[in-house]
Design brief:
By secondary structure, the protein is an all-alpha fold. The protein has helices spanning 10-14, 20-29, 39-63, 80-89, 91-96, 118-141. Helix 2 (20-29) packs across helix 3 and helix 3 crosses helix 4. The termini are far apart.
Amino acid sequence: MSGRGKTISRQAKAGVTLSVARIAKLLRKSRAAYVSSRAPLYVAGVAETIVDSVVKQAAENVRNGQRNGKGGLVFNRINSIDVINVVRSDPDLARLCAGFAFASNRRPTKPMVHITSAQDMVARRKKRSEDKDANDKSSINTGLD
């Protein structure tokens, strides 16, 4: 008799829903030279948090969606379009999924203009502030004489 108790998976210990073993396998298959034992736990937790927020927001969008004449919801399921709209409407999620092609035949409801890199955002802010400063200086110089 070995004296060991019931084995508990890393997934159960961490309290996450996503499979930690599957994520560890995918990380090992990637081009990483070394994967620590805690990395799959962290990735599973982060991925679960992101998925949870996307599903909650999609459910909220469905609840606030179209209603028929009697006040009941026209749709009561979360479709892929709802998830796509949530991802596209949040700038951080849109940047995270920028290289991903969603399988949808519908056109985006919101333009994808807000997806820019951090460097582009800094350049845009700098240009806006320079333009604002130039406009302020010109308005001061064209005062009443």
